[in-house]
């Protein structure tokens, strides 16, 4: 019987233990799939549809995963496995496609799609972010993945609405140093109404002139902006605890009262996986170095 060099547990015994653990993991996966089937059946019996993506529940599950994580296995590996399990189990009972922003880097978008949604979901290439918005709005439960760039090629968020597609999640959700699938992006879905208790609210804002002031001083993050001869369009993120009137007041206080301000979604605050697992990640509002800010 082979033993470790230091005289520890025999290798055969360790291999047997690994086989037993693998069997328990497989049994647990089958049990989870069965429970998911029961949930889908109960949902259908109640006359409700069962969407593939549940942003609020997914965020809660990921927070629990980060809190209980320990050991040498990388957190990003566990996150990917967990997400693949969730999407595969849900996808057994609800078909959906994932529409990808074709204007973004292909490899980065594919990595992001497979990391977060696994290999069970069908991927559909769209020409640009606006096409993703249109495809999701016209679907019966499809998802959209739009790359988040400081300066957009077009104000694609104008097509978002409560009766069509809305922003429902921001990726990456668990923020880690040197993590895989780290392309910043937003997940779009159809929704009957806005999520009232989202950590972060997302707004479509428009100005007919240059955008003055410093929005970040009022706690507003500019996710993306588009400048044209007619003015500036911006996609804003701010605390979901604030009302639309509060957000308008914050813009006014920054010297940037918009001509249009409407809520177009929200998302759970990302988790900082590098520090205290209970901390949420608070990105610095504004733009990356080298990008022109729409403020003068």
From TrEMBL:
**EC code(s) of this entry:** 5.4.99.5
Q: Which Pfam families match?
A: CM_2
A GO molecular-function annotation: chorismate mutase activity
- Which domain of life, per UniProt? Bacteria
Region: Disordered; residue ranges are 270-296
Chorismate mutase domain: which residues? Answer: 5-97
Keyword Isomerase attached: yes
- Enzyme type, top EC level: isomerase
PROSITE patterns xref list = CHORISMATE_MUT_2
Q: Which UniProt keywords apply?
A: Isomerase
Q: What is this protein called?
A: chorismate mutase
Q: Which organism is it from?
A: Roseibium salinum
- What lineage does the source organism belong to? Bacteria, Pseudomonadati, Pseudomonadota, Alphaproteobacteria, Hyphomicrobiales
């Amino acid at each position: 019987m082979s033993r470790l060099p230091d005289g520890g547990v025999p290798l055969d015994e360790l291999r047997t233990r690994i086989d037993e653990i693998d069997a328990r993991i497989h049994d647990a996966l089958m049990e989870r799939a069965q429970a998911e089937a029961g949930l889908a059946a109960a949902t259908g019996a109640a006359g409700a549809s069962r969407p593939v993506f549940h942003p609020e529940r997914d965020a809660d599950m990921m927070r629990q995963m980060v809190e209980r994580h320990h050991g040498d296995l990388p957190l990003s590996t566990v996150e990917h496995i967990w997400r693949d399990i969730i999407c595969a189990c849900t996808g057994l009972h609800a078909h959906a496609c994932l529409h990808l922003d074709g204007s973004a880097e292909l490899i980065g978008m594919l990595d992001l799609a497979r990391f977060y949604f696994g290999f069970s979901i069908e991927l559909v290439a769209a020409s640009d972010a606006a096409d993703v918005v249109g495809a999701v709005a016209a679907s019966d439960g499809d998802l959209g993945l739009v790359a988040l760039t400081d300066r957009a090629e077009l104000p694609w968020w104008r097509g978002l609405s409560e009766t069509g597609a809305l922003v429902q999640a921001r990726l990456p959700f668990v923020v880690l140093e040197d993590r895989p699938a780290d392309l910043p992006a937003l997940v779009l879905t159809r929704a009957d109404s806005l999520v009232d208790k989202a950590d972060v609210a997302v707004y479509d804002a428009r100005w007919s002139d240059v955008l003055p002031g410093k929005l970040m001083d009022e706690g507003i993050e500019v996710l993306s902006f588009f400048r044209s001869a007619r003015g500036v369009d911006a996609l804003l993120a701010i605390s979901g605890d604030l009302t639309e009137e509060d957000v308008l007041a914050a813009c006014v206080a920054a010297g940037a009262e918009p001509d249009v301000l409407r809520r177009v979604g929200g998302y759970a605050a990302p988790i900082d996986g590098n520090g205290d697992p209970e901390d949420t990640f608070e990105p610095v509002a504004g733009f990356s170095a080298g990008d022109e800010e729409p403020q003068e």
